[in-house]
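User: DUF3717 domain-containing protein. Structure?
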Amino acid sequence: MSEITIHELEAAINFWRARSPSSGDELVLCKEASALSKPYALLIVQRQQTLSPDRLDGFARQAWEVYVSLKNSL
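Assistant: Predicted structure:
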């Protein structure tokens, strides 16, 4: 699997946010967007533009793979 760009990761977060909007008074992100937001934040803090999919934890990787699968089926 190729490197994930920061822009692709942001698009995946926005996809999940649109699919399952924030809820509650605290506006909590859905599990998928939350899982992807952590590596996204690391890219920003580390001033990196890409991330290896191997660096995603289990749930973030699953959210990423579902996003890619659904995006490619359109």
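The mean pLDDT is 94. Residues 3 and 52 are 5 Å apart (CA to CA).
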